[in-house]
């Protein structure tokens, strides 16, 4: 017996989720941030890698910067994994923040 091409296929978890579109984006004025579990960390080192599907950024602390040691030891504390689209939004936000900082306080040195 041939299957009806119009018959609904069983839904998977991915198919049940509503597709994300630009039109469905919530305006910033309608976003409420819950900071109840927010934790702050200091970092002075970051590095990153990427694949086709994700961008990975590691954050950590170099606490031997003034010790004159032969080997540099960096303690990594956080790894953030995101899609390339989220990484582009992060890049754009960081560019805006640095531009604002330099407008207020002057150009950063290299």
UniProtKB/TrEMBL annotation:
Top-level taxon in the UniProt lineage: Bacteria
Bias kind Low complexity: ranges: 19-28
UniProt region (Disordered), positions on chain: 1-29
A Pfam family hit: DUF3467
InterPro entries, A to Z: DUF3467
Protein name per its UniProtKB record: DUF3467 domain-containing protein
